[in-house]
């Protein structure tokens, strides 16, 4: 596509592969482009294949030339550019998504290969089923043709070739899971997994867990996400969830696959079935928002540490009431800076555990945090 654009616009064309090119190669192309500009030639197109493999410094080296129009950059990546391309470069580019081919496209390619390929049209090929063929190709034309070739080559020379699901799977030998641990699929599936647990659907959660396991996902990554999820989405509605998730993380690190899949499944189901609350997550978000707005408010004098005589003399720690010296280890005193006194960051949610917490707060603080 980059070559078609270059030929159509009659632009000079340079190509680099991020796999084996570095900053030096980028600068050489940019210098060539600058030297050609003196002869009133149109600015060249620089095509970078697998641009996601460029480091931050390598991507930074492109910024100036892209910004001033010395080159027109076209980058190709199989990854999500939101994660792999620096924001400064991404903001100067237009992203076009090349979607996977649909079944109708794959059918057309299959028919074209069987009927028009110089070698294949001489063979007796019967197409009876295409489900497995299309499923394992994953919407990729190259994969489709590779699978067709593998399937056809699994037959002897004089044998009638029958393409059906059984023969396709047999030729592939192993059930290939469409999963890329470092690509966009990785983020999509973990997102579906988390949302299924958050939505209290253990069946869907275990399905997405199985997808990750079959795709060879890092066991630590899955366990780490469960640990975060237990605090963010279950939190104070069931504090034991964090303990279960932490034990899961420790256990799978010791055991590894395949046995750790059982521990991951147990933890996933437990978390999915647990009552949900994101009050702790919301509380820290609310508190951080206030900090951003109000800045570094001074710590009230009575809460300050007073390790020296001078600090005591100027009031550090004065009038501080030691909670353990009072009934039920509690005394009503101010713990926030004066400017934000009475601010509420933690809001209890509607579950039995937090309802008890709400009653205790009302008993202790009365109308202060109403």
Low-confidence regions? none
Query: Mind telling me the C-alpha Rg?
Result: 31 Å
**CATH architectural arrangement of the largest domain:** Up-down Bundle
Reported for the largest beta sheet, the result is:
3 strands, parallel
Mean pLDDT: 85
CATH top-level class of the largest domain: Mainly Alpha
Number of distinct helices? 17
Helix content: 40-55%
Q: SSE order in H/E notation?
A: HEHEHEHHHEHHEHHHHHHHHH
Assembly classification: single chain
- Give me the CATH fold name of the largest domain: Zinc Finger, Delta Prime, domain 3
Q: What separation lies between the terminal Cα atoms?
A: 63 Å
SS-based structural class? mainly alpha
The structural domain count equals 4
User: Largest sheet, order of strands side by side?
Assistant: 1-2-3
Question: How would you sum up this structure in a few lines?
Answer:
The chain is mainly alpha-helical and 370 residues long.
Task: Provide structural commentary.
This protein is mainly alpha-helical. The protein folds into 4 domains: 2-90, P-loop containing nucleotide triphosphate hydrolases (Rossmann fold, 3-Layer(aba) Sandwich), CATH 3.40.50; 103-172, Helicase, Ruva Protein, domain 3; 184-273, Zinc Finger, Delta Prime, domain 3, CATH 1.20.272.10; 298-365, post-AAA+ oligomerization domain-like. Helices cover 52% and strands 6% of the residues. The chain contains 17 helices and 5 strands. Strands 1-2-3 form a 3-stranded parallel beta sheet, sandwiched between helices. Strands 4-5 form a two-stranded parallel sheet. Strand 2, helix 3 (56-67) and strand 3 (72-76) form a beta-alpha-beta unit. Helix 2 (23-37) runs parallel beside helix 3 and helix 11 (202-214) runs antiparallel to helix 14 (260-273). The longest helix has 16 residues, at 219-234. The radius of gyration is 31 Å and the shape is flat. The N and C termini lie far apart (63 Å).
């Amino acid at each position: 596509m980059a070559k078609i654009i270059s030929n159509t616009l009659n632009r000079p064309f340079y190509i680099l592969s991020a796999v084996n090119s570095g900053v030096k190669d980028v600068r050489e192309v940019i210098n060539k482009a600058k030297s050609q500009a003196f002869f009133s030639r149109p600015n060249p197109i620089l095509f970078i294949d697998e641009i996601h493999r460029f480091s931050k410094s390598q991507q930074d080296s492109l910024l100036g030339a892209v910004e001033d129009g010395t080159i027109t950059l076209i980058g190709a990546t199989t990854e999500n550019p939101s994660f792999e391309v620096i924001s400064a470069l991404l903001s100067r580019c237009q992203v076009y998504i090349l979607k996977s081919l649909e079944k109708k496209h794959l059918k057309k390619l299959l028919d074209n290969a069987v009927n028009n390929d110089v070698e294949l049209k001489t063979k007796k090929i019967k197409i009876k089923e295409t489900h497995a063929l299309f499923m394992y190709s994953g919407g990729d034309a190259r994969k489709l043709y590779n699978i067709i070739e593998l399937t056809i080559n699994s037959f002897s020379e004089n044998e009638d070739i029958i393409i059906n699901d059984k023969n396709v799977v047999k030729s592939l030998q192993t059930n290939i899971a469409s999963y890329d641990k470092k690509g966009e699929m990785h983020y999509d599936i973990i997102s579906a997994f988390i949302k299924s647990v958050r939505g209290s659907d253990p069946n869907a959660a275990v399905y997405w867990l199985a997808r990750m396991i079959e795709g060879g996902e890092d066991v630590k990554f899955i366990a780490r996400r469960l640990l975060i999820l237990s605090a963010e989405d279950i939190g104070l509605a069931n504090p034991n969830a964090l303990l279960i998730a932490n034990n899961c993380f420790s256990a799978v690190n010791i055991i590894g696959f395949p046995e750790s899949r059982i521990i991951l499944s147990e933890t996933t189901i437990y978390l999915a079935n647990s009552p949900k609350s994101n009050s702790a997550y919301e509380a820290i978000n609310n508190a951080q928002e206030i900090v951003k707005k109000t800045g570094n408010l001074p710590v009230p004098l009575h809460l300050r540490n007073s390790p020296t005589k001078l600090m005591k003399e100027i009031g550090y720690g004065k009038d501080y009431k030691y909670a353990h010296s009072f009934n039920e280890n509690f005394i009503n005193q101010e713990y926030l800076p004066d400017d934000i006194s009475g601010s509420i960051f933690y809001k209890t949610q509607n579950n039995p555990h937090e309802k008890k917490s709400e009653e205790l707060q009302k008993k202790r603080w009365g109308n202060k945090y109403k």
